[in-house]
Design goal:
The complex is a heterodimer.
Chain A lengths: L3 E12 L2 E12 L3 E5 L6 H9 L6 E6 L8 H7 E4 L11 H11 L4 H14 L15 H13 L5 E5 L7 H16 L3 E6 L2 H7 L2 E6 L2 E6 L1 H9 L3 E8 L13 H5 L4 E7 L3 E6 L4 H10 L3 E8 L3 H19 L1
Parallel strand pairs in A: 3-7, 3-8, 5-6, 6-7
Antiparallel strand pairs in A: 1-2, 1-4, 8-9, 10-12, 10-13, 11-12
Helix pairs in contact in A: 3-4, 4-5, 8-11
Chain B lengths: L1 H6 L14 H14 L1 H28 L5 H7 L8 H17 L4 H5 L3 H5 L5 H35 L5 H31 L3 H30 L7 H15 L3 H13 L25 H32 L5
Classes of the chains: A alpha/beta, B mainly alpha.
Chain lengths: 325, 327
C-alpha cells in the first residue's frame, strides 16, 4: 500500500449546535483520486476547510502530508493546492499578475516565478491569454487559470471543491481530463462534487456524504456491489435459436443464467436481455449465445452508476428508517 | 515523547512566523492603491487644494512679510474665502484613508479571492497587517509628495529657504498627519471586516467621521453642562465645566489633530489646555517656544492617536481571525 497522504479521525465540526461534519474518518493515499460526493450542504466544503486549516475542527484530528493543519498550517498550505468552489481572481489584473501574487505569497519570486507561471499557463492552454485581464475571461478559462494557480505551487496534494460546477459539458469533460493528467504526474487529488456521474469518471475511490456523515466509502464497483448487489449490467440483443433447436420457451435465458458470476437475467420484448453480473462477462455471454445457436446482434456493458448507487442507498435507508419508526 | 507532544497538540503554539508573506501583500496592495482610479482622483484633489491654498497664502505672506516662521504660515494662513491648507487636510486625510480601506477585507470576500489567498502559506495576520501597512505607506507617499511640493512652491514664491526649525516642525506636522490618517484607515478596515457590503462600510466610516467633526463638539459641550453645572457661579465651577468639555472634546481624533497642528505649526502656542492669567505671570506673550517644548506639548495627543489606532487594529484583528472563511 502506498503512503497515506491525508488522514482524519473522528473529525467533527459544529456551527452553533448544528453538526456540519460528524465524526469523519477519512484516509487518502498517495497518487489516488478521491471523491467526496454528496448533495449540497452535506458537509463536503466544511471538511475541506478543516483539511486546509481554514476552519478549526470542533473535535477529532487531521494529518495532511504528515502535518497538523491546525498547528502547522503553513507547512500544509505550502504543499497543498486548493481550488475553491467560488473561484475568484482580481478582475483588474491580468492572468499573469494574479499568478505572480500567488507565487510571491508562496515565496517564489523573480526568474523562477516566471518560469513556473509560464509552464503552468502553457499547461492549461492559457499561454495566449496571459496578458489579458481576468475580467474578460470565461468561466472555463477562469477554472483553468485556477488550476494553473494551483500548479505553480508544485503541490503534492490538490483539493478541488466542486470543480466542474457551472462548466458546460465539454469544459467539464476537458476538466476531468486535466484531473487525469495530474494523477498521471503523481499528484494526489481530493475532489468534491455533487455531480456523481462526473466524479465516477475521474475518481479511484469515493466517499458518499449525507448529513455530515460519510455513509459509504470505496471504489465505485465496491459500492455498487454493496448497495446494488452487483457491479455490472450487460445489455444483450440476440435472436434466439431457431424454434426447432430451441431448448425451451426461455430461449437464451437459460444458457446465460448458467454462466459463472451472473446473478440475474431479465428478458425484455423478445430479443433483449439484461444480465446483472459480478464482473465484465461480455465475452462469456457472447460465447454462450453463439454456442446456444443464437445470433448475437449487439452487446454492451454498463458500468455501475454512482447515481444509481446513491439513489438506491437512500431508498434503503428510508425504508429502514420507516421500519424503525 | 515527540508523539506525546503531538497528541496534546492543543497546547502547542502554531508554527511559523505570522509575518510570512507580509511583504508580498504590502507590495500587491500598494500597487493596487497607486494604480486605482479612486486614488488618482483623491490625489488630484489634494494636489489642487494644496496648490490653491498655499499659493493664496504665499501671496498674502509676501505682502505682510514680517513673520518669523514664514514656511509654517504657508500651511496655516487662510485668505478669505479660502481656508488654510491644514483646514482642508483635516477632512482630506480621513477621506483618502477611508477610500483606501473601506473595501479592503469585504472586497476580498466579494471577489471570492479570500479563500484562494488564505490557502497560500500565510497567516491571516499577514493579510490584515499587510493591507494596513500598504494603506499607511501609500498615505505617506502621497502626503510626503505634497509636502515637498508645498515647500518647493514656498521657496519659489517667498524667495527664501526654510530654516532648520521650520523643516523640523514641518516634518513633525507630516508625521502627525500620517498617524491621523492611520486611525481613519484602521477604522474603515474594521468596518470592512464587520460589514459584508463595501458601501455600508464606507457609509459607516463617513458617519463616524461626520459625528466627530460636526456633532461631538456640541455633545461634549452639552455633556459638560449637565455633568458639571455652574450652580452658584464660582470660578471653580466654570473651570471644572470647561476642563470637562475640553477632555470630552479630545476623545475626537479631529480635535486632537487640530490641537497638535496648532502647537506644531504655530510656535507661539504655549499651552493646549486652559490657562489662567496667573499662570502666565512672567511669560513673554507671543514669544515662540523651542521645538522640544512644542513636542512635549503634543506628545500626549500623539500617543493618544497612535494608541487608538492600535486598539482599533486589535479589534479588527480579533474580528477577522474569528470570521468564517466560508462566505
Amino acid at each position: 500500500m502506498s503512503e497515506i497522504v491525508l488522514e482524519s479521525q473522528g473529525l467533527t465540526k459544529q456551527y452553533n449546535g448544528f453538526v456540519a461534519v460528524d465524526n469523519l474518518d477519512l484516509t487518502v493515499r498517495q497518487g489516488e483520486v478521491f471523491g467526496l460526493l454528496g448533495p449540497n450542504g452535506a458537509g463536503k466544503t466544511t471538511t475541506i476547510l478543516m483539511l486546509l486549516g481554514l476552519t478549526e475542527p470542533t473535535a477529532g484530528s487531521v494529518q495532511v502530508l504528515g502535518f497538523d493543519p491546525v498547528r502547522q498550517p503553513l507547512s500544509v498550505k505550502a504543499r497543498l493546492g486548493y481550488l475553491p468552489e467560488q473561484l475568484g481572481f482580481y478582475e483588474g489584473l491580468t492572468a499573469r499578475e494574479n499568478l505572480v501574487y500567488t507565487a510571491s505569497l508562496n515565496g517564489v519570486r523573480g526568474r523562477e516565478a516566471h518560469e513556473r507561471i509560464d509552464a503552468a499557463l502553457a499547461q492549461m492552454g492559457l499561454g495566449e491569454a496571459a496578458g489579458q485581464r481576468v475580467g474578460t475571461f470565461s468561466r472555463g478559462m477562469r477554472q483553468r487559470l485556477g488550476v494553473a494557480d494551483v500548479l505553480l505551487k508544485q503541490p503534492q496534494l490538490v483539493i478541488m471543491d466542486e470543480p466542474t460546477q457551472g462548466l458546460d459539458p465539454e469544459a467539464a469533460r476537458e476538466f476531468l481530463d486535466t484531473v487525469r493528467h495530474l494523477k498521471a504526474e503523481g499528484i494526489t487529488i481530493l475532489l468534491s462534487s455533487h455531480l456523481l456521474h462526473q466524479a465516477q469518471a475521474a475518481c479511484d475511490r469515493v466517499g458518499l456524504f449525507h448529513q455530515g456523515r460519510m455513509v459509504l466509502e470505496g471504489t465505485v464497483r465496491e459500492l455498487a456491489r454493496q448497495v446494488l448487489g452487483s457491479g455490472y449490467r450487460i445489455h444483450l440483443e440476440a435472436e434466439g435459436p431457431v424454434p426447432s433447436e430451441a431448448e425451451g420457451p426461455d430461449g437464451l435465458e437459460e444458457p446465460l443464467r448458467r454462466l459463472d458470476g451472473v446473478l440475474n437475467v431479465r428478458r425484455f420484448d423478445t430479443n433483449f436481455y439484461e444480465l446483472e453480473a459480478e464482473s465484465d462477462l461480455r465475452a462469456e455471454a457472447a460465447r454462450a449465445v453463439v454456442e446456444a445457436g443464437g445470433r448475437l446482434l449487439s452487446l454492451a456493458v454498463e458500468a455501475p452508476s454512482l447515481d444509481e448507487v446513491y439513489t438506491r442507498y437512500f431508498q434503503q435507508v428510508e425504508v429502514q428508517d420507516a421500519a424503525t419508526d | 515523547m515527540p508523539q506525546q507532544t503531538k497528541r496534546s497538540g492543543q497546547k502547542r503554539r502554531r508554527e511559523g512566523s505570522p509575518w510570512t508573506g507580509l511583504g508580498a501583500v504590502v507590495a500587491k496592495e500598494m500597487a493596487d492603491h497607486l494604480t486605482s482610479a479612486r486614488m488618482l482622483i483623491l490625489e488630484l484633489l489634494t494636489v489642487l487644494t494644496a496648490a490653491g491654498t498655499v499659493y493664496v497664502a504665499a501671496q498674502n505672506l509676501r505682502n505682510s512679510g514680517q513673520d518669523q516662521f514664514l514656511f509654517l504660515s504657508l500651511f496655516t494662513t487662510p485668505q478669505d474665502p479660502v481656508p488654510a491648507f491644514v483646514g482642508f487636510l483635516g477632512f482630506l486625510v480621513p477621506l483618502i484613508a477611508i477610500a483606501m480601506a473601506f473595501d479592503s477585507v469585504n472586497g476580498e470576500f466579494n471577489r471570492r479571492t479570500i479563500s484562494r489567498v488564505l490557502a497560500q502559506p500565510i497567516y491571516r495576520d499577514a493579510l490584515l497587517l499587510g493591507k494596513f501597512l500598504a494603506g499607511l505607506f501609500t498615505l505617506t507617499l502621497v502626503l510626503t509628495a505634497i509636502w515637498l511640493l508645498i515647500i518647493g512652491l514656498g521657496i519659489l514664491v517667498l524667495g527664501v529657504p526654510p530654516s532648520g526649525e521650520e523643516v523640523a516642525r514641518g516634518l513633525t506636522f507630516l508625521a502627525v498627519t500620517i498617524s491621523y490618517g492611520g486611525i481613519w484607515l484602521v477604522l474603515a478596515m474594521v468596518f470592512s471586516i464587520i460589514f459584508r457590503q463595501p458601501a455600508t462600510a464606507a457609509l459607516a466610516s463617513i458617519a463616524v467621521w461626520l459625528f466627530f467633526t460636526v456633532f461631538w463638539g456640541i455633545i461634549a459641550g452639552v455633556l459638560a453642562q449637565v455633568l458639571r453645572p455652574v450652580e452658584v457661579g464660582f470660578l471653580e465651577e466654570s473651570l471644572a465645566q470647561a476642563r470637562l468639555e475640553l477632555a470630552l472634546g479630545r476623545l475626537s481624533p479631529n480635535a486632537l489633530y487640530a490641537e497638535v497642528i496648532l502647537a506644531t505649526l504655530n510656535p507661539a502656542v504655549r499651552s493646549l489646555g486652559l490657562v489662567l492669567p496667573i499662570q502666565l505671570h512672567g511669560a513673554i506673550l507671543g514669544a515662540p517656544l523651542p521645538l522640544d517644548q512644542s513636542l512635549s506639548l503634543i506628545w500626549p495627543h500623539l500617543t493618544g492617536l497612535i494608541a487608538a489606532t492600535i486598539l482599533l487594529f486589535a479589534l479588527g484583528y480579533v474580528l477577522f481571525q474569528r470570521r468564517e472563511i466560508r462566505a
